[in-house]
Write a structure and sequence with these properties.
By secondary structure, this protein is an alpha/beta fold. The chain has seven helices and six strands. The relative contact order is 0.19.
């Protein structure tokens, strides 16, 4: 099976994440896309904005449910921190030797991909699929092991949703079923019951 690994802090998971994962799984040759929860991204600037892993994982589980072709991957929660993508991919490769893993990243991350630990090994051993992010044109890519897909984009981010929630805005249509209720029930991101 060909598995796409879509990593993120999912703080919180939103409809843009699910739309992208579903599109990639259905139209880009993946048997499954695994949404890989990252506990701490070494390149993120504000780790204090992260709510606990267990809550972000619960929201991912709510969002995915039993959707065919999409799965939640929590492997990095039990790995040493900070989590490096190359280590995650190597671990998955050992644990699931019959699967072929490919990394999925946005065009914003492609711009800084050479800063990632062992980025050349990721390209040569696993391959990378790049999807567009608003404001980050991909341009022409000649690297072996890189595919560019023209996935639909939603110009929303977890940062936007966190800010809107903290200001009391209704984010029901921006979040997967059950996630908004979970956020309100647990008074996350500055929401009140």
């Amino acid at each position: 099976m060909i598995i796409g690994i879509l990593g993120g802090s999912f703080n919180p998971v939103h409809i843009g994440h699910l739309m992208l994962a579903s599109y990639l799984q259905q139209f880009c040759g993946f048997d499954e896309v695994w949404l890989n929860l990252s506990p701490l991204n070494p390149l993120k600037s504000n780790p204090e904005e992260l709510i606990p892993d267990v809550q972000r994982l619960a929201m991912l589980d709510l969002a995915i449910g039993d959707t065919k072709g999409l799965k939640v991957c929590d492997i990095e929660l039990s790995m040493p921190k900070p989590s490096y993508t190359i280590n995650t991919l190597r671990y998955l490769e050992k644990r699931y030797p019959r699967h072929q893993f490919k990394l999925i990243i946005g065009s914003d991350n492609w711009k800084i991909f050479d800063h990632w630990k062992d980025s050349e090994a990721i390209l040569s051993d696993f391959g990378v699929v790049i999807y567009p992010r608003p404001g980050y044109p991909v341009g022409t890519v000649y690297d072996d092991g890189v595919d560019v897909v023209n996935a639909p984009t939603a110009d929303i981010s977890s940062t936007f949703i966190r800010k809107a929630l903290s200001r009391g805005k209704d984010m029901n249509y921006f979040l997967p079923a059950g996630v908004y209720d979970y956020i309100k029930k647990n008074e996350l991101y500055g929401t009140k019951h």
